[in-house]
Structures are given as structure tokens and as C-alpha cells.
Design a protein that fits this description.
Blueprint: E1 3-9, E2 14-19, E3 28-33, E4 35-37, E5 46-59, E6 82-83, E7 110-123, E8 125-130, E9 142-147, E10 151-158, E11 174-182, E12 191-196, E13 229-233, E14 238-243, E15 249-255, E16 263-268, E17 282-287, E18 292-296, E19 306-308, E20 316-321, E21 328-333, E22 337-342, E23 350-356, E24 363-366, E25 372-376, E26 382-388, H1 409-413, E27 417-424, E28 431-436, E29 447-451, E30 456-461
Antiparallel strand pairs: 1-6, 1-30, 2-3, 3-5, 4-5, 5-7, 8-9, 9-10, 10-11, 12-13, 13-14, 14-15, 16-17, 17-18, 18-19, 20-21, 21-22, 22-23, 24-25, 25-26, 26-27, 28-29, 29-30
């Protein structure tokens, strides 16, 4: 069974987690929350949220003590940890960093959360995504937020780098809004997902994903440069967004008819994907219409490059291109399955493998150095799914046990499959978020996951079969 290190209870329903991928800020964990207020004859309904920012740090056995925070966001580490049905633990916490920033493996008995910044009141949040390192400011990383108000918001996180020996037990960071754009469409007008273009950089997308400014709902015919971000919405639409040199954002390419029902997923292809004529131009999407689609932004959003409506037995909830192979893409669905796709032939992607995660796969995140994914499987808890066969092993680590280094496309897909390696059943409600905690010098894997109605945020170590 998985080993629970620490669980905290948020002030609102937890619906997403994003661990910062940048080495200098790898301790930071952003957490999304969502609360629907139905309203009555006198008060209209509303959807509110809070953006939480936590430090995730290792502790050494026997060095626990002190108070980790207040009642809503506090909670203690569990010492040696418990199994995955241990539930929330709201005792004291804290502890020493255990080698943080030393460049070596933390000598940690476990992991614990500490609030890094005061919670920020927002609209109800659907998705958070850390920007590529090129967008970092002089004071820290940048975070994008898609919300139920139909807005895309960018925050600068003012924080000390990990190697500055920051006090992880104090709220030493701050969230600062730097840009906001209303880009929701018709219907409920909610912006449901956001992704950063890995091939763009500040100023590089100023020319837009297509040509000129696009009104929401317009279909554009392409012809421009790169965009910086893409969002999708509850109207089934997709919007490409560029950052101007002044820091403001603009929608440069938009369609309200990308999907027939609510769109839940949008993701840029790997920069080296051979199916794209230009890095950063290829986009994937998924929606409640059970369609998995691909788009070439250089041709606009009028017509998809491909449409697959047959593979998924229910809505497509997440799309995750692999960082380890430019032609491997994972999709999640309400049909409980995580699927792996070979997109070398973009007009006809091939489903190469699938695994049943025991619940709808709302979100999945690739491991930074291993060919496996952390999945939020809704009623099925959280799961770790790995590639089997030739595609298994660590990336670029042929000397490690089980490591296979870099693989050709043929080696990656040949005879391989997907298999659930382990699961976590410690959440008492729907699991909507899962991501890999920061790594350092061979440290054992940890996963951060969250659940909705019980407002849970957990960190745990998977025990894989």
C-alpha cells in the first residue's frame, strides 16, 4: 500500500494540484479550489475559489515539532508515515528541511506541507499550469489559472530560490497578479483548461497564434506566428493567446465550435513532434463529446487535423504529451481508462495501449524522468501508471536498474503497454488532481494529490508492483 506522509484540509473543495517543475523552486505546490454557491431568488449563483501555495519539504525522522500552520491549512507530518487509509492528520508538524538545496538526495523520513503564501481569493479554478522557465521573472516562477469566470489569469510568484535556504515553515512567498484576460465563450462561459506553448518564449508569441486580434467565437484562418498559451472552455471552444511585450494578453485565434460539448482538455504537442511542420503549432484537445482532436495553429482553428470519436467511450478529460518521446500522447477519459497514442501519423493517430485506473481519469501528469504517470482517477482515488515492455525504465539513465535510456520511436512503442503500478485510496472524496513532487539526486518518488468534497491535500509515496 502507498505510504501517506502528510494530509491537510483546505478551506474550499480541492480540484487540482501543480508541483513547480523548475529546479530552483521545486518545493512549491499550487493548489486549485472550487465552490459552487447555488443562490436563491435574491442572490444569483456564483462560483468562488481560492489559490493556495504550499512548500513541500522533506523532514528527518525524530526532528518533528512545532506548528505547521493554522487550523484550515495546518497539519502535521506523520513521522514515518502511515498507509493510504490513514485519513487527515491535523496534529503539529514542521521539521528540518533534510538536505534541501544541497544537490544530493534528501535524507528524509517523509514529507510535509507548510503554507508558502496566504490563500488568494479568486473565481472558482478549473486548472493551474506553471509556465516554462523562460517566463520566470526576476523574483520567481509564473503560474497560469483558468477559472469559472471565463478568465485566464497570470500570477508571478515572488519567492526565494530553494538554494537560498528559505524558511519553509513561514509564509515567505507572495502571489502577484500580472495579467488577466476574459476569454470564456457562450453558455456558462467557463475557461476549463490552460496550457503553455513549450516552443514559445516571452515576446516570441506577440505576433499571435494566427493573425490579428480575434473576438471570442471567431474562427480564424491562420497565417501568424506562435502563441504563448491555449485555453478551452465550457462552450466547446478553443482560444490561442499571445503575450504582448507590454505584458498584456490577447486572443489571437479562436473558435467556439471546436467541440460539440464542454471541452475539458487542451495541450501543445512536444516541440520535436515530427507531425508538425513548425514547433509549437500543433495542439490537442478533448471534450465531453468523446472526441480527441488535433489542430495546426498555422492553418487556424477552422478545421482539425484529425478527429477520433471512436476510442473513448465517454468524455475526454485530459491530454498529456510525453516529455520523453515527442510522438507519445496520453489521454484520460470518464470511461476509467488512460490511453497511450502514437501521433507520428497526425492524420490518423494510433492507440497503442490502455489501462483501467478504476475511475474517470480527470488529470494525469508524466514523471519528469521515468516513463510513468500520476493519475487522478476521481472515484478510483489516485494511481501510478507505467509503460511496460521496451518503453519502461528511466529516461537517459541506461546504467540504472531497469533504466533503458533514450529510445527510438520503434523501441518506445514496440510491444509496450500501460499497467497500473500502484494506487492510493486515502482520499475520502473524488480525486481531481495528482502530480509528482519535486525530485532531487535520486530521492524516492512522492505524489501530491487532492480530493474535492473532503478538501484534502495529501502527499504520499507510491509502492509500485
Amino acid at each position: 500500500m502507498a505510504k501517506l506522509h502528510h494530509a491537510v484540509q483546505l478551506g474550499l473543495n480541492a480540484c487540482g494540484v501543480e508541483c513547480c517543475p523548475h529546479a530552483s523552486y521545486r518545493r512549491l505546490v499550487a493548489v486549485a479550489s472550487y465552490l459552487h454557491l447555488p443562490g436563491n431568488d435574491d442572490t444569483p449563483q456564483s462560483r468562488v475559489g481560492q489559490l493556495f501555495l504550499y512548500n513541500l519539504a522533506p523532514f528527518r525522522s525524530g526532528l518533528l515539532g512545532g506548528d505547521a500552520g493554522d487550523g484550515d491549512s495546518g497539519g502535521g507530518a506523520e513521522g514515518e508515515g502511515g498507509d493510504d487509509d490513514g485519513g487527515d492528520n491535523n496534529g503539529g508538524g514542521g521539521g528540518e528541511e533534510g538536505g534541501l538545496g544541497s544537490g544530493g538526495a534528501p535524507t528524509a523520513a517523509g514529507w510535509s506541507f507548510a503554507p508558502a503564501a496566504p490563500a488568494l481569493d479568486t473565481q472558482a479554478i478549473f486548472e493551474l499550469r506553471w509556465a516554462p522557465a523562460a517566463y520566470n521573472t526576476s523574483t520567481g516562477p509564473v503560474l497560469a489559472q483558468a477559472d469559472a469566470g471565463g478568465c485566464l489569469t497570470l500570477y508571478a510568484v515572488d519567492a526565494n530560490p530553494d538554494d537560498d535556504a528559505a524558511d519553509l515553515g513561514s509564509q515567505s512567498a507572495a502571489l502577484r497578479e500580472i495579467a488577466k484576460l476574459e476569454c470564456g465563450g457562450g453558455g456558462l462561459g467557463m475557461t476549463t483548461c490552460v496550457d503553455w506553448n513549450p516552443s514559445s518564449a516571452p515576446g516570441g508569441g506577440g505576433g499571435g497564434g494566427c493573425s490579428g486580434d480575434a473576438d471570442v467565437g471567431d474562427e480564424c484562418g491562420g497565417g501568424g506566428g506562435l502563441c504563448d498559451l491555449a485555453v478551452c472552455g465550457a462552450d466547446g471552444g478553443i482560444r490561442a493567446v499571445a503575450l504582448r511585450e507590454c505584458g498584456a494578453m490577447k486572443v489571437t485565434c479562436a473558435t467556439a465550435t471546436a467541440h460539440d460539448l464542454e471541452a475539458w482538455a487542451v495541450a501543445f504537442a512536444h516541440p520535436d513532434c515530427a507531425a508538425s511542420s513548425h514547433p509549437g503549432a500543433l495542439l490537442f484537445s478533448g471534450a465531453d463529446d468523446a472526441a480527441f482532436k488535433g489542430w495546426d495553429l498555422r492553418a487556424g482553428l477552422g478545421h482539425p487535423v484529425f478527429v477520433n470519436r471512436r476510442a473513448h467511450a465517454a468524455g475526454v478529460t485530459c491530454v498529456a504529451p510525453s516529455p520523453h518521446n515527442p510522438h507519445a500522447v496520453a489521454t484520460g477519459s470518464y470511461d476509467d481508462r488512460l490511453r497511450l497514442w502514437d501521433v507520428r501519423q497526425m492524420a490518423r493517430p494510433v492507440e497503442t495501449a490502455a489501462a483501467n485506473c478504476g475511475g474517470g481519469v480527470w488529470r494525469c501528469r508524466w514523471h519528469p524522468t521515468r516513463r510513468r504517470l500520476a493519475c487522478a482517477a476521481m472515484d478510483g482515488g489516485a494511481a501510478v501508471v507505467g509503460c511496460t515492455g521496451a518503453g519502461a525504465g528511466d529516461v537517459g539513465a541506461p546504467g540504472d536498474s531497469g533504466g533503458s535510456g533514450e529510445l527510438s520511436d520503434e523501441e518506445f512503442f514496440a510491444g509496450g503497454g500501460l499497467r497500473v503500478l500502484g494506487s492510493y485510496q486515502g482520499h475520502e472524496s473524488i480525486a481531481y488532481g495528482a502530480d509528482w513532487g519535486w525530485q532531487g539526486g535520486g530521492a524516492a518518488d512522492v505524489v501530491v494529490s487532492c480530493s474535492f468534497y473532503d478538501r484534502g491535500l495529501h502527499v504520499w509515496s507510491p509502492r509500485v508492483a
